[in-house]
Amino acid sequence: MRRSFRFRLAVRFSATIAAGFVAISAMSLFTLRVVLDRELDAGILNVATIQAASVTDPLSGGMSFYEWQLTPDEAASIQDLNRYAQVWRQDGVSLLRSRYMTADLPLDPQALEESAGGELVWREATYLMAPIRSLYYPLGRLGEAHEAHVIQVAASLVSRNDMLGRFSIVLVGIGLLMVVGSFVGSWWLAESAIRPVHEITDQAEEIEAGSLQRGISVYAEFGEYERLVQVLNTMLGRLRNAFESQRRFTADASHELRSPLTVLRGELELALRNERDPEEYRSVISSSLEEVMRLSRITDDLLTLARSDAGGFQVRQRPTDLGEQASSVVERLKFRASDKGVALDLEVTGDARGMFDPDLMNQAIWNLTANAVKFCRSGEEAHVLVEGDDARVRIEVWDTGPGLGEAPHRVFERFYRGDQSRTPAGDEGGTGLGLAIVRAVVEAHGGQVQAANRRDGGAIFTVTLPRGSTP
Ligand SMILES: Nc1ncnc2c1ncn2[C@@H]1O[C@H](COP(=O)(O)OP(=O)(O)OP(=O)(O)O)[C@@H](O)[C@H]1O
Ligand SMILES: [Mg+2]
User: Fold this and answer.
1) What is the pLDDT of residues 63-107, one digit of tens each?
2) 3-state secondary structure of 451
3) Ligand 1: residue whose CA is nearest its atom 17
4) Residue 404: strand, helix, or coil
């Protein structure tokens, strides 16, 4: 069974109330009992003093009670008024007792003895099946003639016990009412405290991929729920952005793939239309091959990016020397550069070894260097600099080409291609994925890449990578 927060809250609250009420009840019962007993004792003592004074005749030594003229039945009918009195001799022989009493009071020999010694002694006992409280009062205090006499005055505890019993019943009633009341009250309160959570959940539930822009609107203005609503809405915003960029990526990708396919199809259809000589076929095939190669390059890039989206790359770190990697990239691009009349050089300082994924890093360095060569015109220069220090390896690729224009940071966006007029004539247009891949690779290694315009013209890319554990 699922536990209900509401139920738990209501139970805890009413349990607290119940515990508090039990404590208060116990205290008031105890206080009431003390007060009643004190009053009863005062009454008994009062009667004992008066009876003691009236019973004795210091001159003759004879004794008689000052008494109402009541029959035992009449006396029994006004129980509350009832005080029993009996005079004992020290040896336990009854000397005198109230006229309306039908039996001797229960005698506690030890109390009798103590009292005969001159003390007031209190005892509780049962008399005629009812609880009583009695006082042993030494009559010796009134004169030597009574040295051996003790008067026992008793009062029934029935009405005191009744009172306490009735009070307890009232307390139990009030207590039950309070517990039930507080349970119902807190149940209701908890309901209203939890209602916003339900409403927020309902709204969140209704939001789907298509309605991400809706967001959650209820209870945003209440301090307690503001943060929850805010966090949910921020999360929805991020989801929305991710969805949007994914959608754009797919649309751009299909668009990019379509144009080479269209070209390819046109060329092939044209070639098929008439009989051609081998020279013409060769040229069609070779230009088709170019388109196919472009297509496969784009699909490779798209695949790389798709992999990076699906939870980052599997970076297989191995001891890798980035200096060596850069040197092999530069070596492979040398011809392309010298063909264009672009000077390309490499400088490696310090130790550039570290734990990197060689394939991914190779592609990143290639993309940066190939860009530098691609965007330089004849007579301009491209430089690659690899520099290692204690914790990091830095790769700098800069050139004296046209630079990155007004928004250097945008070059990392997927499918972003800068101002075409800056691309030297004769170079094939790229797809705009190269730098997006660079950034994904560098970030997968825990590094950073920055793009900027150089002050004296040209672009500069700086990659900083943590070395990882050195081999
Ligand atoms: N060294 C550079 N000098 C000037 N502009 C650059 C340089 N490197 C990149 N850019 C600009 O940034 C854009 C994006 O570069 P990126 O490498 O991502 O794409 P691309 O080179 O156009 O295509 P791809 O690399 O996918 O074939 C380029 O189109 C270009 O406008
Ligand atoms: Mg490029």
Assistant:
1) 667 666 667 677 666 655 568 889 999 899 988 887 778 889 999
2) strand
3) 434
4) coil
